[in-house]
Amino acid sequence: MAVQAVDLKPSPYGQPLFPSHSHLLTEEEATPGIPAEEYERRRRALMNSLPNNSLVLCIAGEIKYMSGRAYKFRQSSDFWYLTGFEQPNAAVVLKSDPSSERGYHMTMFCAENDPETEKWDGARISFEDVVRYFGADDARPSYELARFLHSLTTTAEHVYVDLPRSRRRSWRVDAEASLDFLRNAKHRSTPEGLLKMLDTSRTRPLAPEVGRLRAIKSAHEQRVMRAAADISADAHTRVMRFTIPNMPEYEIAAHFEYLCARAGAQRPAYVPVVASGANARIIHYTANNQLVRDGELVLIDAGCEYNGYASDITRTFPVSGKFSEPQKALYSAVLAAQKQLVKLCSAASGLSLAQLHSTSCDLLRKELVNAGIPNAPMRLSELYPHYIGHHVGIDLHESTYIDRHEPLKAGMVVTVEPGVYVPPSDSYPAYFHNIGIRIEDEVLVGETEPIVLSAHAPKEIVDVEGVCQGLLDIEPL
């Protein structure tokens, strides 16, 4: 039955859906840009990849608090990938079901409607609408989860869930959230027994299974990621024009985030790096609290999150609008290497991310020697201390469960970000001291050719200088 779009204020759904937010998504979409059918395909692909008689438990994120106030909520990535459901303190259980046409049964658990709570925090979606919009076979209150699982885990041969022992360090927060969710459920004796029961030889980590699916982006995901990259690329371009000598780094960071938010981005993908002068030698410089000085370079590593997907772009530009000769020499070296590396991001190349990194080292050794650092081959680990890139998608870094030695496949999205950071050492010419340069693009791996999602952010010297000097009709606001 067709759903009519009306101006529902406030929305009764707890997140954007077509009836209340037709300006953001279509009737077929569960989240902006991603159809409900795609979430169904993801769940089916997951269950088809698991052994028969498997059970999956995936837990939503929790609200985080700062000084008594809640941060803007961001859903747990795997849970969002499988459901599109954006409300906290929820869970989904998928159980193999050969009698079902789709091969599994899906039960969602979420908070009940509570008029008093909703008066303060906004609407909670009804169980009926959870079934209607998110593909669940049935929906139940959160406090029933422990008892429900107890009835299923006694018969399931394989239980996929994230417990602390099965997760790597970077996934620990989600694992602890999973346990807290169970512990805080009603009927407290049951969850404790359940946790003990789950910690058996039948229990397996869920994150690696979902991570392998997330590595390859669908056509819908690619379109959303291109839009996210376009928003960030436009912000990078305008910030180049906006920046002037003696401006605080934090003002530049704030302007970047403002431009992204104005274009529809929901949040920054990460804390932006706005590093002027020697600060650019600090790879993850996020203090952003000094003044940019005339004659310095500014390195900006920043991106937005748009409709669930991160963007990640780095550009380096001259505050004065023109590179000095030493700056130009090093920038040209990094740019030449970066462009060659981007060309290798195809399935046809047969390269892995590890091989791409090795190639980046070879290229930078040669380019830096040509730029005027003859000892670069022996000191490259000091000049170029980080890896060439990482997978990106719903999370900024999606490499946790993707082997760096696995060949790149069409549909993967990776960053390509060589850099050079020259310390004030007698080992290097003085005119290169304290110069830090990184150039990072988001690249969609194609079968035979790469697609640079961040192509709209200038990186050629003539274009960067033209934008900074106001020669290309780019408005700073």
TrEMBL record:
Q: What's an example of a GO molecular-function annotation for this chain? A: manganese ion binding
Q: What Gene Ontology terms describe where this protein resides (cellular component)?
A: mitochondrion
Q: Which UniProt keywords apply?
A: Hydrolase, Manganese, Metal-binding
* UniProt cross-references to InterPro entries, sorted A to Z: Aminopep_P_N (IPR007865), Creatin/AminoP/Spt16_N (IPR029149), Creatinase/aminopeptidase-like (IPR036005), Pept_M24 (IPR000994), Peptidase_M24B_aminopep-P_CS (IPR001131), X-Pro_dipept-like (IPR052433)
Signal sequence coordinates: none
The record places domain Aminopeptidase P N-terminal at: 34-170
For the biological process aspect of GO, one term held by this record is:
proteolysis
| Presence of the UniProt keyword Phosphoprotein in the record | no
Highest taxon of source = Eukaryota
- What Pfam families is this protein classified in? AMP_N, Peptidase_M24
Keyword check for Hydrolase: yes
Which cofactors are required for activity?
Mn(2+)
PROSITE patterns per record: PROLINE_PEPTIDASE
Q: Which family does it belong to?
A: Belongs to the peptidase M24B family.
Annotated protein name in UniProt: Aminopeptidase P N-terminal domain-containing protein
Q: Which organism is it from?
A: Obba rivulosa
